[in-house]
Amino acid sequence: MGRVHILLKQHVGAPCKAVTEPGADVQRGTLIAVPDGLGANIFSSVCGVVESVTDTEIVIRKKEEQPESYVKIPEGTKAEMVAYAGITGMGGAGFPTAVKLSADLHGGYILVNAAECEPGLCHNIRQIEEQCDKIIRGVKYCMELTNASRAIFAIKKKNEKAVRVLKEALKEEEEITLHLLPDIYPMGEERAVVRECLGVELGVDQLPTAADAVVINVETVSRVAEAIDERKPCFSKNVTVVGKLNGGEEPHVFLDVPIGTSIGELIERAGGINGIYGEIIVGGPFTGHAAQEDTPVTKTTGGVIVTIDLPDLHGAPVGLLVCACGGTEERMRDICAKMNGKVVSVARCKQAVEMKNGALKCERPGNCPGQVKNSIQFKKDGCEYIIIGNCSDCSNTVMGSAPKMGLKVFHQTDHVMRTIHHPLYRHLRVSKKVEQDI
Fold it and tell me: What number is the average pLDDT over the span 237-254?
């Protein structure tokens, strides 16, 4: 019958507190955990029996029959229903949506992040193509809740079908428009979205509200519509599964996956792993992390990527260039270890600023200066290879100096890009500007 493992921390803030116990019968939509401070309600995603409750997760044994019905959230104001439904940012950040939508924008902007920034992922774009009406309803609710007078979809121009669908759906919507983005990473970072759509440069410590804007993900606005129109709790997630799969190389998009489902189950639904592989990554190539097949889907799970094997550096000395837009130093060390490299030097992108919580933020995401100083450090420290995790523009600047110094460059996404037949991140070949023909 199977089990789901529902984690108690799926959002910014402290883990939730369980409000159920072993042996309890639960339905889809039964409230099973509540916030302990900043957070969001967590609901059962299946019909079953609670098997165990720990400080980190609730395990539910599924019943053989899984009805489509669910326990509806209480009726209330739109803001109350969004809060009770337990919606968080579903693009990866996991900030509680009700808190974000409590801002008064004084006639400002809802910016819908449809960039689907991480290469290889396409579930946001697929949802626009298939469920555009629901998404637009959600956008209108977000505008109403925040007192916004305008909304803008920020979407990459390359997604031609989704752009056509949006244009058709928005023909009569004077307050909602499109802004076309270049295919550059990280156009989906929220300060980059504000910069591209509104022309406002935010500092690393500023939120989009400083520009009278709220940035919200495509799937998140659809969950807002579900909460208000259908009184539906947030207990499912849209996921892209891609990579070295028996089901083919094209991305497999699964909509409304029950939260707590193992990523191994999704891989099996995509045909299973095809032969020898390197890593299973949860998230995207840049900001995801290595995982096991028993890792559960959460509200912030976007992608599951099965990669080809990584190259062997045979113990060569390696420098790590840590970027705010890519993997953490821990993630890059993990990649280096899997490549049998030896870390002898670590540097940060010159625009990476360390915040109070220890996380890095880029001063100007997507627009980066040269990295000559770091390349000189790596050469001085005796590196033969450098592993970088930089954005499109920053990778381009690394390539302007590192190879001239005899440094061999491996981008942390290379094994993923080779798996999905995507150009490697080296030289920038895409214009930073896109003509707005809308």
Answer: 97
